[in-house]
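pinned: reference chain
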Amino acid sequence: MRKLLLSSLEGYREVIIEMMRYSGAVDQIADDLNCSEEDLVHFIKSSGIDKQLSRRSWKWKATDKGKRRVIGSS
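pinned: its structure tokens
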């Protein structure tokens, strides 16, 4: 599978926004979209998505990959 180019990321703008809202870290999104993390970060900053989502809880790097906190009842 080939990697996405920076110019083709504009077609995925809405997908990237949704993924940032709900899935979290940019490095995971880059893996899911099969593009380089540097290109994705450049696209996010140059298109203003980081400012648009400044009040949302998203991260540049994933910390606990694959782990979810489970709240159980005692």
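why pinned: Residues 18 and 30 are 13 Å apart (CA to CA). The chain is about 45% helix and 0% strand.
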